[in-house]
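Chapter review: from sequence to fold.
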Amino acid sequence: MTGIDYDDAETLTAALEDRLTATLAPDTVSRRSVLGGIGVAGSAALGLSGTGAADGDHDDDEHGNFGPNGEYGDENFDPHDFLRTFNTGGEGQDNVNENVYEEDGQTVRHFTLTAVDTTITIAPGVEFDAWTFNGQVPGPTLRVVEGDTIRVTFVNGSSHAHTIHPHVKNVDPRMDGTPQNGPGVLETGEEFTYEWEAQPAGLHFYHCHSLPLKEHFHRGLYGVIVVDPDPDRVRENPREYVSGNRPVSDEYAAELVETAKTRNHEYSENARYDEMVMVMNGFDTNFDGENEVYAANTRAFAYGVGSTDANGEWEAGETIRPIQIDKNQRQRVYLLNATEFDPINSFHTHSQFYDYYDHGTTLEPTHSTVDTVMQCQAQRGILELDYSDHEQGLYMFHAHQSEFAELGWMSFFEVV
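The C-alpha cell string follows.
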C-alpha cells in the first residue's frame, strides 16, 4: 500500500466525522438531516465550531431526572483498550473488582459491577448522558469457562432502579434479573449478588431488564459474557458442539477438542488467535426514538484512520486509528448487536470472507465463507478471519446499512 491510500482513508474518516459532529450541535437534529445536510468534504470546508452535547432530560423518563455522577468517569475509556481486554476473575480492567477461587470443588469467577450515571463521549465534542456498568459503555467483558460459577455482585450507584439479566442458561428464576423475580429491581444504594452457571459455551450477553426496557438498554447498560468451551466436556459430549444430530466420529471429536482449546483462554492454543470484542451500538442524542450516532464499541469512527499520539488520549480524534493485526495470526471477533431503535445491524468486510458461529455455541461454523452477517438486537456470534494471503495495508469493515456507516460505524483493519 502506498502512502496516498492512508491519506485518502484519513481524509474520508475526518470528513465523515466532521460532518457528523457539526450537524449534531443542535439537539433537535435527526439522523436524516445528518445524512442530508452536508455533503462529504474535507474538514476545512465544513466550518466546524462549538460542541454538540446530548441533553439527557426528557419528560417521559419515569425515573425522573439524572442524579449525580458516580465514582467512575469516561476519561479512561478507550475503545482500543476495550477491544482486547477480557476480565477473567484473575486479570482484566483496573476498574473491575474481580477474583477467581475454588468453592466446594467449583471454580468461581467473582465480579463486582456498579451502575453509575455518567457522561460518555460518543464522538469528539459530542457527549451523551448514559447509565452504565462501571462507568463505561459497553460494560466490562466477563470471560469464564464452561461449568464455572459466575458470581456478580451488583451495586446500584445510579439514581435509577436497575437489574442485571444474563443471556446464559439460568435454571434459578431468582437469578433472572427481572422486576418480577428474586430481588426485583434494585433501588439506589442497594446491592445483590447474582449467581449463574456458565453454560452453554459461546458468546453471551448481560443487560439491565428494568422498565422501560428501551430506556435502560439504549442508555448503555449492557455488556458481553464470553463462555469458553471446556475441552474435557467436549471430549465427553462432542455432539453437543455441532449442528444437527449427525454422528460424530472419533477423529472429528478429536478435532473438536483441539478447536475448543483455541477458544479457551486457559490453554496455550488460544494464542494462535488475536481475539477482540466488538459491540455494535447506537445513540439517540435527542431522544426522538431514532439514533443519530452509530459505532462499534461506542465511539464513532474509533477504528477509522487518523493521527494518533498512541497514548490513549481522546482529543479531536487523536485515538482514531485502524485496528492493527498481524497477517500471520488468525483473527477472532466476538460480535454482539446492542443497537436499540433499529431492528437489524450488520458486519461487512471488504476483500475478505470469514466463518461465522451464530451465538458461538457450536465449534463448527453455522455460516462458512461469508462477507456480511446480520444480527437483530441481542444476537451475537463469533467471526474467524484469516489475512495470511493478503497484502499489507488497510481493509475496511463496517455496517452494511449504509447510513450506519456514514454515521459512525465505519472501521479499518491494518494488516502488517
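Two observations follow directly from the output. The two ends are 11 Å apart (CA to CA). Residues 37-74, 312-317 have pLDDT under 50 and may be disordered.
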